[in-house]
Design a protein that fits this description.
The complex is a heterodimer of chains A (about 350) and B (about 400). Chain A is of the alpha+beta class and about 350 residues long. Chain A is about 25% helix and about 20% strand. In chain A, the strands form four sheets. In chain A, strands 1-2-3-6-5 form a five-stranded antiparallel sheet. A four-stranded mixed sheet of chain A has the order 7-8-13-14, with helices on one face. The radius of gyration of chain A is 24 Å and the shape is globular. Chain B has three domains: about 140 residues, 2-Layer Sandwich (Alpha-Beta Plaits); about 160 residues, Sulfite Reductase Hemoprotein, domain 1 (2-Layer Sandwich); about 60 residues, Alpha-Beta Plaits (2-Layer Sandwich), CATH 3.30.70. Chain B has a five-stranded mixed sheet with strand order 6-7-8-13-14. Chain B is globular. Classes of the chains: A alpha+beta (about 350), B alpha+beta (about 400). Strand 4 of chain A pairs antiparallel with strand 4 of chain B, so a sheet runs across the interface.
């Protein structure tokens, strides 16, 4: 009989001795070079962390390869970050340069710390999700191939910039609160297969899944009807009912959102706001998406003040100037028409021409 | 095995950023499941549509969650992706590993699964990506032998996760890793056997920088704070200034409440503690000179979630300050009160934030026994549509 309810491995057995000894006693840190952190303890001990880019989707060979490196330079200790980078933990300073040389020789990319564009938090996409409107891994690869000099610190930015990708509006991960978010969207309403629906879907659950009340029961067919005028194609009905289909390779695509953050530094956490309502799915390189993200980064980096994140920069210059500076068209799609929409309307004569 | 033709995906082996296609190919060299995954993905790239069927309920004995079932919609074309289930494995707090632990896990997964992982899923779990129904139970049994239990899925407590906290950070106000470990262990039953209206996530960040994105990505966010004065090393501040650091542009003008000032005459940083909202900016900007205060605890925020159904929410203040000391009984009591109330009143697939939005924050506070406080709102209400309880008003005007 297998063991149950024993929980995850205990972190206390997995942290290196220098962390055991200095737990809760760290004094300050510096970033001696991009991707390398130096932590100094009240006891005088020092810990270096070397951060590398990871594709998040990795193989056993990858896990064994980075384990080999950690065995050679880090006494067998390593960790991952909340943005899915890997970090090598070095307590012996004499091993730092050899580790960095070895990582570079093996083709690992070092970076992602401080004011930079770090890894992209993303989701399953066509690799594993039934709701995916786009592929997450492919878009991340394309965007970061383009932006990798911002990861390595080769190109400087005014502040950190977080990018996230979600393959549908479930927004698993961090898309509603990132500096730039890429979110898969549908633009055509779902189709109901009445015969399939009977006996396979809970009708009340399906009706309750709709944010705009567009679904009602159809007693004739013992199925449901969708009012297309009320439907904004969120696809939540398809999540709870397999007899409703929405995928449309011609019209599905992605939207781009800007200005979100979670940290409380300076300003309160912010939601991301719509910048581009639709760009096509264009695998494998998604050039429209990649160009749009790069353009947003460049306009922000050229105009923001030191330490000013995307949302803070927009707050200062105003949305009207954001659209002017980026050259993005402002459309009816940008005006909120969901719950509490009026709180996003401009109730002042303070605006720029 | 037949020749693997993936011209579109091959494009994604080029470029500087580490390639997920290379990783799938590394696994595909040994595993037919990974090979068919790659072939199916190539078809998705060509056809611009996913090829996974809706849902699929699979699992292991004793648990109601932890495994996400997945089936190819074209098993004739991709026979080894016919069953391609995900196992969520609970990660150690702070994502710390020894290489032995990782190698043990990889050995088990190579034996029973595709040899592909997400390190890590957004909630924190190690994601083992792709195995058959038949292999689930033996795989999970052998993972248990090397010390890994499953994480959460479904209407349950999901796997808690946290920032690196006191293990490596000078601004950690609470022991985020220990809180996460203790909560995960205490609520094993709630995590493994879904019993709630919907999912419930707890994330712990040790300071308001919120490196675990707790306020946006968890129903109950624990965020470390201090409530006395932050500590200033004036000599170290002078060193920043003398080294050419523009303290006015970089720090003073960015303080959201104008709580700090630089006295150029005295060469001293002045702090009005009562105005400080512990946003972290000045500490982040001058980590050698400024440190968090000594009276430490956590702020608790409730309701964070993604858009579906009622719109995205960032958690709201529920408890401005709570001491967080092992075994965290005050915190556990509050979790119990919140989840009991939600389990009783929540509709099917209604997150706790949506329930509070529907019923009202005031009623929620009354039900779980917390006092209303000005820290809970950006501003008081502006409309006059105020509810009163009968016991709050004098009897008058009855027939």
């Amino acid at each position: 009989m297998a063991r149950n309810d024993f929980g995850p491995p205990d972190y206390r057995e997995l942290i290196p001795p220098v962390i055991q000894k200095n737990y809760g006693q760290w004094k300050y840190h510096t970033i001696p070079r991009p991707g390398v952190l130096k932590h100094v303890s009240d006891t005088g001990d020092v810990l270096y962390s070397v951060r590398i880019a990871s594709p998040r989707l990795v193989s056993s060979e990858y896990i064994r390869s980075i384990s080999d490196i950690a065995d050679t330079y880090c006494d067998g200790y390593l960790r991952f970050t909340t943005r899915n980078n890997a970090e090598f933990l070095v307590s012996d300073e004499s091993k730092l340069e050899p580790l960095i040389k070895d990582l570079v020789a093996k083709g690992y990319m070092i970076g992602g710390g401080g004011h930079s564009i770090s890894n992209v938090v993303h989701t399953q996409g066509w690799i594993h999700c039934k709701s995916a409107v786009t592929d997450a891994s492919g878009i991340v690869k394309d965007v970061m191939d383009e932006l990798h000099p911002y990861f390595t610190g080769e190109i400087k930015v005014p502040a950190r910039l977080r990018i996230a990708v979600a393959c549908c509006v479930n927004m698993c991960g961090a898309c509603h609160c990132s500096d730039i978010s890429i979110v898969g969207i549908h633009r055509t309403p779902p189709r109901v297969n009445d015969e399939l629906l009977v006996g396979r879907c809970e009708i009340p659950t399906t009706i309750a899944a709709c944010p705009t009340g567009a679904i009602r029961p159809n007693p004739k067919t013992k199925s449901v009807e969708i009012n297309h005028e009320k439907c904004m194609m969120c696809a939540n009905c398809t999540v709870v009912c397999p007899a409703i289909k929405i995928m449309d390779p011609v019209n599905d695509g992605v939207s781009i959102w800007v200005g979100g953050k979670v940290s409380n530094a300076r300003t309160a956490p912010k939601f991301s706001r719509l910048a581009i309502p639709y760009l096509p799915n264009n695998p494998p390189r998604w050039p429209e998406v990649t160009n749009a993200v790069k353009h947003l980064v460049e306009v922000w980096a050229a105009s923001a003040r030191e330490g000013e994140r995307m949302g803070e920069w927009i707050d200062r210059i105003g949305w009207e100037r954001f659209f002017e500076k980026t050259g993005l068209p402002f459309t009816d799609k940008h005006i909120d028409d969901f719950t509490h929409a009026t709180t996003t309307f401009r109730s002042t004569t303070q605006f720029r021409f | 095995m037949d020749e693997l033709k993936t011209p579109l995906l091959d494009e994604l082996e080029k470029g500087e950023w580490p390639s997920f296609v290379k990783e799938i190919k590394r696994a595909a060299a040994k595993n037919p499941g990974a090979r068919d995954l790659l072939r199916q993905l190539e078809a998705s790239y060509r056809e611009k549509i996913g090829h996974w069927k809706h849902g699929g309920i699979v699992g292991v004995k004793g648990y109601g969650g932890g495994v996400v079932g997945r089936y190819s919609d074209d098993p004739e074309r991709f026979p080894h992706a016919k069953e391609f289930h995900t196992i969520r494995v609970n990660q150690p707090a702070g994502f710390f590993y020894t290489t032995k632990k990782l190698r043990d896990m990889a050995d088990v997964w190579d034996k029973y699964g595709s040899g592909l992982y997400n390190m890590h899923g957004s909630t924190g779990d190690i994601i083992l990506l792709g195995t058959t129904t038949e292999n689930l139970q033996p795989c999970v049994d052998e993972l248990a032998d090397v010390g890994f239990d499953l994480g959460g899925s479904g209407g349950a407590l999901r796997t808690p996760s946290c920032c690196v906290g006191q293990a490596r950070c000078a601004t950690a106000c609470i022991d985020s890793m220990e809180i996460t470990r203790e909560i995960t262990m205490h609520y094993q039953n709630e995590l493994h056997r879904p019993a709630w209206p919907y999912k419930f996530k707890i994330k712990v960040s040790a300071c308001p920088n919120d490196c675990a994105a707790a306020s946006a990505r968890s129903d109950l966010a624990v965020i470390g704070v201090w409530r006395d004065a932050l500590l200033i090393d004036q000599a170290a501040v002078r060193e920043y200034v003398n080294n050419g650091f523009n303290i006015f542009d970089r720090v003073i003008r960015k303080c959201p409440t104008a709580a700090i000032d630089w006295d150029s005459q005295k060469q001293e940083l002045e702090l009005r503690t009562e105005d400080c909202v512990h946003c972290m900016h000045c500490i982040n900007a001058m980590p050698k000179a400024l440190r968090i205060g000594k009276e430490r605890g956590a702020s608790l925020l409730i309701g964070g979630k993604a858009p579906v159904v009622k719109g995205a929410m960032i958690g709201w203040v529920l408890v401005p300050f709570m001491k967080m000391e092992p075994p965290f009984n005050e915190f556990k009591d509050l979790v119990d009160k919140i989840t009991d109330w939600w389990a009783e009143h929540g509709k099917n697939r209604e997150r706790v934030g949506e329930l509070i939005d529907r019923i009202g924050l005031s009623v929620f506070l009354k039900e779980i026994g917390l006092p209303p406080l000005p820290q809970m709102v950006h501003a008081p209400r502006s409309n006059p549509y105020i509810f009163w309880y009968p016991e709050e008003v004098e009897k008058h005007g009855e027939k």
